[in-house]
């Protein structure tokens, strides 16, 4: 299959996940086997991004007529918050693909295709318990050391350890690995289910089949054992290797860093997929609003801006030197309620009924910029969402009635926090605030920078309503919202807790029968829809504003856990 794997997260057979991995015909760069008869069939696709042809139906890539050429640098207004008050371990997900590599990559072309990365091929046993990853033998860390299976084992143990500060551990399926619990409880020095078979082969054995295991492993960055093994887990997030001296195996390595101004990523000459065309990526820090970076983009000082909507997008599209790159967001812009503060679900239901989402998408976003989103499903065609869920259509009288039934105090003021600070986002939030006021709900809005928002939400949850992205992208993400993951134990920052949902999620994860599993997901979606796990609002059309001469630039977002590979080593400056 030329190293591509069709992955069907919404039609998984939990005991037959191996069927997506072993190949019917061997290939040099990867392997995969025919999917089960009731799953969509795999397709052959060109593996090399540079070979893709221009197409108007692929707006997530900026294709140029000029041939790729080496050299030059681009300046980006999208500084990662790892360099602005946080660190590279704070999330540890694949949106840091400039610096880090993963075992496998989620394709930017569709959310059901995985491609080889550090793992060139893989096999999954017929009982769904054993995963064997075969690694490339030409992958180097940025300091020149070889990446081996020992690094993969170390990474899994480092990410799993509760003191390491790698926060994505709570949403990855690592707890399915045999020996995981003994390791995290301090009863063992290693995760026994992760075995190094030789320098370039690692075997992972699960305690029980898990439908999300292969998918989740695509969301884990790899870390160098020789750098990290001498640092105590509790000191990792404060180590310089977690920030300005970070070492990865991706296409770019850390260069100069001037706090509060910029940091530079330098091309890694020995990158295993080939040296990047660009010499440098210069990330400007502090350009958080369109107004702060748009003049630089228009003058040519900046080549890559951030997301644009509404009038800002029209301004970009009217400029012959600029373009927009991206696609509609599969998930929803959502409100995360702090369930600690809402013991009566009727109040949350009233908040949802009170918002006229159609009016906001048409009158504030503008036609074609966003759509009302009815639930946390990636695609309306996906079959894990019950047909019986409530879409909560706009009904202000219904909202008032629910508030009255709940004994709502009209003098209570709710705090709504958001890090979205563009004029458009402020107008969207102001419109919601007005709709709530009409229903008798007072809401105070706080616009803050991303690190401050993250501290309020993730570190010491202290809010009523938080506005963010992207909801639930695939069904097993429900596991994130278990009672066991309420902070400080995990990232269930909404503190949603329903033991019946926890039980149903665990049953669905291992249910071998497709129809029975679907019915379990149906019941889970019905309960969480009624109890307002999230208030799902809008599907945005997310696009970056860039200079047209940044060729092969790619941007698309599937979820917040596993991001598609953006192939930055293929970006180049066109004529």
TrEMBL record:
Keyword Signal: yes
Ranges of biased composition (kind: Low complexity): 40-52
One MF term in the entry's GO annotations: peptide transmembrane transporter activity
PROSITE patterns: PROKAR_LIPOPROTEIN
Domain Solute-binding protein family: start-end pairs: 114-466
Region described as Disordered: spans on this chain: 28-52
Protein name (database record): ABC transporter substrate-binding protein
Native source organism of the sequence: Litorilinea aerophila
Organism taxonomic ancestry: Bacteria, Bacillati, Chloroflexota, Caldilineae, Caldilineales
């Amino acid at each position: 299959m030329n190293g591509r794997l069709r992955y069907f997260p919404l039609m998984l057979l939990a005991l037959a996940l191996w069927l997506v991995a072993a190949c019917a015909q061997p290939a040099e760069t990867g392997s995969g086997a025919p999917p089960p008869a009731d799953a969509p069939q795999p397709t052959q696709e060109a593996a090399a991004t540079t070979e893709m042809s221009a197409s108007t139906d692929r707006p997530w890539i900026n294709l140029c007529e000029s041939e790729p050429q080496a050299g030059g640098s681009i300046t980006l207004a999208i500084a990662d918050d790892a360099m602005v008050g946080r660190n590279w371990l704070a999330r540890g997900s694949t949106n840091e693909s400039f610096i880090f590599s993963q075992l496998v990559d989620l394709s930017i072309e569709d959310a059901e295709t995985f491609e080889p990365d550090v793992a060139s091929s893989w096999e999954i046993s017929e009982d769904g318990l054993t995963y064997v990853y075969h690694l490339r033998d030409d992958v180097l860390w940025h300091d020149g050391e070889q990446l081996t299976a020992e690094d993969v084992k170390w990474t899994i143990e480092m990410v799993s350890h509760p003191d390491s500060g790698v926060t994505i551990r709570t949403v990855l399926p690592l707890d399915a690995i045999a020996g995981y619990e003994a390791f995290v409880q301090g009863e063992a020095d290693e995760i026994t289910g992760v075995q190094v078979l030789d320098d370039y082969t690692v075997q992972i054995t699960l305690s029980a089949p898990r439908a999300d295991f292969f998918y989740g492993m695509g969301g884990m960055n790899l870390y160098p054992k020789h750098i990290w093994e001498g640092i105590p887990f509790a000191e990792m997030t404060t180590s310089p290797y977690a920030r300005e001296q970070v070492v990865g195996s991706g296409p770019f390595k850390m260069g100069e860093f001037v706090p509060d101004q910029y940091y530079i990523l330098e091309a890694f000459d020995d990158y295993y997929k080939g040296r990047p065309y660009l010499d440098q990526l210069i990330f400007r820090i502090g350009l958080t609003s369109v107004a702060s970076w748009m003049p630089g983009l228009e003058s040519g000082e900046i080549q890559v801006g951030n997301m644009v909507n509404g009038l800002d997008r029209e301004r970009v599209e009217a400029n012959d030197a600029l373009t927009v790159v991206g696609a509609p967001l599969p998930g929803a812009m959502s409100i995360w309620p702090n369930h600690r503060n809402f013991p009566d679900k009727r109040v949350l239901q009233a908040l949802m009924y009170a918002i006229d989402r159609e009016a906001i998408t048409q009158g504030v976003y503008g036609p074609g910029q966003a759509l009302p989103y009815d639930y946390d499903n990636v695609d309306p065609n996906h079959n894990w969402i019950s047909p019986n869920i409530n879409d909560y259509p706009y009904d202000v009288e219904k909202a008032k009635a629910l508030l009255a039934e709940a004994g709502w105090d009209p003098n209570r003021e709710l705090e709504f926090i958001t890090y979205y600070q563009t004029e458009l986002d402020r107008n969207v939030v102001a419109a919601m605030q007005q709709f709530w006021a009409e229903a008798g709900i007072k809401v105070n809005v706080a616009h803050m920078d991303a690190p401050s928002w993250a501290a309020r939400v993730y570190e010491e949850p202290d809010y009523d309503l938080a506005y963010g992205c992207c909801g639930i992208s695939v069904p097993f993400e429900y596991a994130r919202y278990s009672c066991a993951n309420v902070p400080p134990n995990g990232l269930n920052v909404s503190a949603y807790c329903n033991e019946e949902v926890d039980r149903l999620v665990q049953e669905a994860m291992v249910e071998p029968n497709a129809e029975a599993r679907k019915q379990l997901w149906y019941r889970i979606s019905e309960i969480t829809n009624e109890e307002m796990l999230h208030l799902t609002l809008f599907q945005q059309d997310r696009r970056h504003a860039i200079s047209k001469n940044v060729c092969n630039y790619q941007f698309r977002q599937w979820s917040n856990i596993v991001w598609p590979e953006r192939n930055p080593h293929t970006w180049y400056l066109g004529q």
